[in-house]
């Protein structure tokens, strides 16, 4: 069974999450502050963490940093904070996804399932697997992209950007992370680079570049690749 750690200081939200998760056969632990959350994570080794940022004893970003010191467990932030800067900070310190309160239970459960799938151990072929969409396929090992029966020519920068997004399939990747991974540590704020290259990828790979379904923009935060 998948074990979920719920971290929130609002009893109503904790109760709703525990009831809904247990009804779907998840094992659930709950914490109302950051210290208890870190202790439970170390003792119980959850498969995914649902984390509120506004905790009574410490900020949720400190909990993320504490977890990232020893585990890669998926962390989905649940928060009433709406500003892009706060969302980006949570992603940059190690969160995997961000859901704004109030949220729909169906959406949250879908995000949770996706996070668990991404965290599952790779098969024996690992990165050799081909990621296929309705419009194109990406062979990470061969560094090859095909649209129908035709190879798509990408520049090295376009390929690197595509590779980072595909390897984080379904996960929101912050602008800062993309810039630093593709262009280097000194590039953390040049969001115009991303706009230009994302437009090029969409033009080459999306069925309708004006209405992308695979390269999704999360305004002010980053981008998400949806297979």
Automatic annotation (TrEMBL):
SMART domains linked: REC, Trans_reg_C
InterPro entries linked: CheY-like_superfamily, OmpR/PhoB-type_DNA-bd, Sig_transdc_resp-reg_receiver, WalR-like, WH-like_DNA-bd_sf
Sequence positions bearing 4-aspartylphosphate: 52
Domain Response regulatory: 3-116
SUPFAM superfamilies: CheY-like
Sequence ranges assigned to domain OmpR/PhoB-type in this UniProt record: 128-227
TM region positions: none
DNA-binding region: 128-227
Presence of the UniProt keyword Phosphoprotein in the record: yes
PANTHER family in alphabetical order: KDP OPERON TRANSCRIPTIONAL REGULATORY PROTEIN KDPE, REGULATOR OF RPOS
Protein name: Response regulator
């Amino acid at each position: 069974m998948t074990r979920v750690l719920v971290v929130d200081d609002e009893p109503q939200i904790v109760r709703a999450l525990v009831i809904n998760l247990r009804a779907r056969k998840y094992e659930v632990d709950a914490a109302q502050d950051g210290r208890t959350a870190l202790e439970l994570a170390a003792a119980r080794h959850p498969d995914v963490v649902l984390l509120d940022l506004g905790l009574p004893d410490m900020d949720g970003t400190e909990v993320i940093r504490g977890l990232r010191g020893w585990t890669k467990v998926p962390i989905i932030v649940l928060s009433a904070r709406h500003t892009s800067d706060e969302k980006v900070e949570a992603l940059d310190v190690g969160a995997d996804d961000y859901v704004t309160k109030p949220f729909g239970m169906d959406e949250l459960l879908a995000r949770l399932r996706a996070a668990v799938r991404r965290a599952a151990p790779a098969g024996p072929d690992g990165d050799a697997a081909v990621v296929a969409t309705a419009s194109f396929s990406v062979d990470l090992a061969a560094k090859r992209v095909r649209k129908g029966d035709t190879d798509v020519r990408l520049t090295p920068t376009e390929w690197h950007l595509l590779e980072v997004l595909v390897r984080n399939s379904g996960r929101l990747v912050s602008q800062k992370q993309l810039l630093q991974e593709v262009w280097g540590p000194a590039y953390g704020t040049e969001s115009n680079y991303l706009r230009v290259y994302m437009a090029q990828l969409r033009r080459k790979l999306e069925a309708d570049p004006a209405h992308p379904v695979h390269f999704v923009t999360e305004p002010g935060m980053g981008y998400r690749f949806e297979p």
